[in-house]
Structures are given as C-alpha cells and as structure tokens.
Amino acid sequence: MRRQGMDYTGPTCLIISLFCTCCASPPNFVLLFADDLGFGDLGCYGHPSSLTPNLDRLAARGLRFTDFYSTSPVCSPSRASLLTGRYQTRSGVYPGVLYPGSIGGLPLNETTIAEVLKPLGYATAAMGKWHLGLGANGTFLPTKQGFDKYLGIPYSHDMGPCHNLTCFPPDVKCFGFCDVGTVTVPLMYNEDIKQQPVHFLDLEKSYSDFATNFIMTSVKENQPFFLYYPSHHTHYPQYAGTRTAGRSLRGPFGDALLELDNTIGDLMATLEQTGVINNTLIFFTSDNGPELMRMSRGGNAGSLKCGKGTTYEGGMREPAIAYWKGTIKPGVTHELASTLDILPTIASLAGAKLPPVMLDGFDMTNILVHQGKSKRETMMFYPTDPNEIYGLFALRLGKYKAHFYTRGCALSGTTPDPDCPAFAVLKAHDPPLIFDLEADPSEHYPLPLADRPDIQAVLEQIKKAKTEFEASMVFGESQVSKGTDPKLEPCCNPQCSPKPSCCYC
Ligand code: MG
After folding, report:
1. What is the CA radius of gyration of the chain?
2. Which pLDDT score, from 0 to 100, does residue 8 have?
C-alpha cells in the first residue's frame, strides 16, 4: 500500500528496477552488529568448532564478504561510523570508547540511518548495545537519534561491578576483571531504566521478544521498518541463557555466539511468518576484531594479523553477510566494502535522501544485487586515538595496504606474534610497510621496494590518496575527551545514597 507523504518514484526507482514494480512496498532493513567478533569466528568463515547454523545458512543463501571493514578497532567509533556513514574522526567519537558517565556522545547533528529513513515513514527500533553515549537526561540515547524504540544496555556490559556479571552455568567462574566503582549495568527501555542490574541470562529472550513484537506490529500497520541489533555477544565477559549455555563445542565464547545465532534464527522465523522475508535486507557484521587478550575466550581473527585495538587486518576486517531472499544471489564477494557503505546503500534502496554532509560511504547496491564491482577504492585505518598530527596509520588501495605507523595493543596481547601486544610500541615506517593483501592477507611479508618500480608506483598512488583524504578530513570535537561525570551514570533510584552501590532496584 502506498503511504501518504512518501515518494518511491524518481531516479532511485529507475536505477533499482527491481523495486519499480513494487514501489508501494519499500524494503525493510535488519542490521545485525556483533561485538568483538573476529574474522575467523563463524563456522562459515572457517572456524572448526563454532556452532553458527543460522549465520551459516544466511551466508550460504546470501552474499558473504571477504574484504569488509569496520572503521575502528574499538567499539564506540566503529558504531558512530556504521550509523552515520562517516569516519569517526568527523563525528568526534574518539579516542577510545564512551563510559557510563561520559559527558559526550554521538553529536545530535549527525544523521543516523534511522534518521535517514524516518522521513519515509519507517518504523525504527534498536535493541542491544548502544555505546554512543547517554549524557545528561539521556541526551544521546537511541530515541534521540532517530529510533522510535530502544531496549538494551547503553554501553559495554563489562562496564559495571563484578557482581553484575553473570556467568552460566553458575559454577563457571567469571573470567578476568571488570569495572568497579560504577553503577551496576542497567537495562533501558527507551529512556527509562527497566532493570538494574540487568538479568543477563534472560536478556537474549527479551531481545528476541522485542524484535518479534516490533516486526509484527510494523507489518500489521503496513509500515516499512528498520531494526538495528547491536548485540553484546561476543564481547567479554561472555554469558548465555539456558537455551545455549554449555551447548556449543567452544566453551563460554561458543555458547555466547550460539545464543546470538539463535536470536538471528528467531528473527528469520518472524520475517518468514509475517510474510516480509522477500522484502527485507538482512545485513550482519561486527564492530571490531577479537579481544585476543582474553585468550581462548577472546575470539579469533582467523588468518588475519593481530586483533582488537590494532590497525592490522585482524583489528578491522570483519565477517559480513548480506541476505535478501529472491534479490541477493548466493555467493562470495571479494569486493572492498565497509560499514561506512551501509547508510548510503540503505538510503539508495529505500529511496531516501542522503544527509547533506561529507559522507565516506558508497552505495553497495551494485555488489549486493548485481554481484558487481565496488565503488570503494580505498579504506582508511585510524588508530584508537586518532589525531591530526599522525593522521592515518594505514591505507588500503585496491589489494595493497601501506602501514605508515604500526602499534600493538593490550587488547591484542597473548598472541605469539610480537607485533600485536602493547609492548610493540608506536613505530613510524618510512618508507611505509606495504603488503599485497590478496597474496598475503596475514601481512607477514612486506613487499620490497628496491628494483620494483611497480610497487614504488603503487606506493606513490597510496601516498597521493592519503594526502587527498587527509585534506578532506575535518576532525570533529572529541566527545570522549569531554570526560566523565559520575552523576551521569544511570541509576534506577536517583536520590539514593551511597552511590553507586545503591543503584540497585
Ligand atoms: Mg567491540
């Protein structure tokens, strides 16, 4: 049914001929975003003991990317880029990540995917890990960024005292450390605290129910929808409810991953049952590479070098799957693509206007629908703490990647590769280290420049691309550097004392 106030005619509809016959029914979008899930963690990406039957099915029946990147090796900046189609340096979501009492957040003048779709009458909902700020009176929550509804934990679930971190089965000891001196981890519904502390073992079911209700209501009201599910899985500390705890082959990490996979199975079943599966693009990827410091509970980058916190491939190249029954043909693509490209792609498919800002993303419709070429030629690699003095740490152009700086990170500790942990201090490379990522995806063997005019020419092209990109980059005011205020931490009993321990309802 054509809805009042919407226009699905015009150039977009002409370009995307498949919708011209069904312009009255714009596509729905389900965006799934795993946390700290590495390139090698899914069954369909080669992990021998992960159980991910639903994701494997999506990959087998959809399009699996081999060269898909997030924009940051840590959570908050990566999420800012996903939702805005812009490098995090523009929006100011850096350095590092936001905290429960952070004063800043994703600035409200940034346009999110939800805000791109709202003028077309889309129903929008987010559930899971937000991690783009709360601020005073919930200034930066999803409901202020274009989402009609939100259910979730607004930051990482290890940002709370240990007693809030539930392990299952109960005799399994929680692994590692967590934040002390902050409020217990809350579950929020829209802008209100629904539970504090959150009941982790029931959480996934709450999400599944929330998603089912949202999809069913949207379909019933004949409204196109956008569901964004940034999962807490498989970030440390891993947890899993009774449905999956102890059921994987891979211990607590595998159980957490299986729980996420189960929820995706539930979502697919709802899309089938409501009859919208043929008109829904489902896109799955992850925010950053695996937290290797957690050892066997930290995820796996597969054949890629290092992991979370680094600008090596393991830190930012992610598993990615696009599924759209009847529209996307099954296959594997080696085209270069990024989380940055999701906003322009969704806008194009929906017939929405792009925000009038400098975007870093490209429309991927040609890759998805026609198995065609990517418009993306480069990928930029900023460290966790980008600044204008150092600029890019690395740049990929086509199949070549040049590292201008390298640095290990504590989050990637414990691996035998000496380049990954924190004691691999910042190192400038002049000339840059250059790798052929098709021949050497593990970044083991820098290409020699001597007597190789072809590689020297590539390096000149990379340097030119770097200069041009950096000239276009205007760093936004750092949101994370605004600091924290304990009074901003969410508390279900705001007048109680002593804080933070009294925030327990
Ligand atoms: Mg993460």
Report:
1. 22
2. 40
157 is catalytic: no
Cross-strand bridge partners of residue 428: 405
pTM of the model: 0.94
Is residue 131 part of the annotated active site? The answer reads: yes
Is the separation of the CB atoms in 84 and 343 below 8 Å?
yes
Measured between alpha carbons, how far is residue 459 from residues 31, 173, 401, 409, 426 in Å?
A: 36, 50, 9, 26, 21
| 71 — pLDDT class (breaks 50, 70, 90) | very high
User: For strand 63-69 and strand 280-286, is the pairing parallel, antiparallel, or unpaired?
Assistant: unpaired
Q: From ligand 1's centre to the CA of 415, what distance in Å?
A: 19
CA–CA gap between residue 320 and residue 341 (Å, rounded) = 12
- The per-residue pLDDT for range 338-354, each reduced to its tens digit, is 999 999 999 999 999 99
Does domain 10-381 bear CATH number 3.40.720.10? Answer: yes
Task: Considering the candidates 75, 167, 178, 409, report the single residue annotated as catalytic.
Answer: 75
Query: What is the residue extent of each domain of the chain?
Result: 10-381
CA of 291 to the centre of ligand 1 (A): 8
d(CA 410, CA 423): 8
Q: What DSSP string runs through 178-229?
A: ---SSPPPPEEETTEEEESS--HHHHHHHHHHHHHHHHHHHHHTT--EEEEE
Residues 44, 47, 131, 306: which is the catalytic one?
131
> Which tokens in the block code for residue 337?
């693509």
Structure tokens of 83? 């939702």
Q: What is the pLDDT of residues 14-69, one digit of tens each?
A: 444 444 444 458 999 999 999 999 999 999 999 999 999 999 999 999 999 999 99
